[in-house]
Amino acid sequence: MAMQPQFSATFLADLDIVCPKAEDGKLPLSFVNDLEDAYAHARAFSLQQPVISVADLTSLAEDLSTWRSHHQRLLQQCLAKIPCDDPLLGQVSLFRTMDYGRLETAHTRTLAWLLGDGEHGFGNRLLEALLRHLRKGRQIHHIQVDQVESEYLVDCGPARTEAGRLDVFAKGRWEEKGNEVYWLLVIEAKIDAEEGEEQLSQYDDWLEPCPQSTEVIRVFLTPDGRAPRTNRAEWKWKVLSFVDLASVFRRVLPDLQDTPGYHFLRYYLTGVLQDICGCPASISPDSKNPYTVVDYLESVLDAGETEDGHVQSR
Q1: What's the pTM value of the predicted model, to 2 decimals?
Q2: pLDDT by residue (tens digit) across 73-132?
Q3: 204 close to 235: Cβ distance less than 8 angstroms
Q4: Distance between CA 224 and CA 309 in Å, rounded?
């Protein structure tokens, strides 16, 4: 079996900045697949004769260096505006002490707990913020949450010997343009594992009988916001990166400082940023990968910058 070409994380990060971005902020999966094929053919052809000159590579290196320098400057500017207790600067990861920093079930169960109205004292603030992010631009009001569950069992049909499990399941109502709208949110998260064969399609089949009046929001949550490997025929799942999730929760964090779960959430976000997203524990403009850090900081700053130029804190 032919080996798939491998790309370094630095190259992919630089490429994602240099190339035009898709609507969801990431390179389209079809483009990445085509690039893999082109790379394989180019490498085979290069064994016969060189097709890329040293001058071309030098020019590319200069362009990528310019982009990196640009993001290093942005990082330095952003770091001056965030408070010292921002989760990005934290030293304690909630799950890393147990070697659970990238354990999917630890994160999905915690995510469901955070989104629900539990003993953390957040009410439904985090879920409301996530829904508004997923439906950005919509005028939704008076969000009510009726149910939030982790590992929600679903019947995937007689052909399946085992029931499926949705990582996070939630439902409720909101008001939009004077009308009451029922909504249903399902989140499937993958950190290091791939989704099962036709897994998302099977969840789609289970969701199919939902009334047309119910707005179904399907979220595929991954470290980099990648598209699903399967279920390409009919695109229904909205991709979300853990950086996006951390940014959404971070924007709500200042309003939760008097709640019992405030520090739990801070440590959780630190773990997400460091253990899943790859942000270093010690942030500086010379960090190996400034792009993810800048994405997080710009999102937080755009939403929460005050008149004095600093982000809201405790």
Answers
A1: 0.77
A2: 999 999 999 999 999 999 999 999 899 999 999 999 999 999 999 999 999 999 999 999
A3: no
A4: 29
Same domain, 64 and 101: no
Q: What share of the chain is helix, strand, coil (3-state, %, to 5)?
A: 45, 15, 40
Are both 74 and 116 inside the same structural domain?
Answer: no
Burial 147-182 (b: 16+ CB within 10 A, else e): ebebebebebeeeeeeebbbbbbbbbebeeeeeebb
| Ramachandran category for residue 99: left, alpha or beta (phi over 0 → left; psi -120 to 50 → alpha) | left
- The one-letter code for the residue type at 155 is D
Least Cα distance to 189 among 123, 131, 106 occurs for: 106
Q: CB-side exposure of 312: number of CA atoms within 13 Å? A: 13
Domain annotation covers residue 2: no
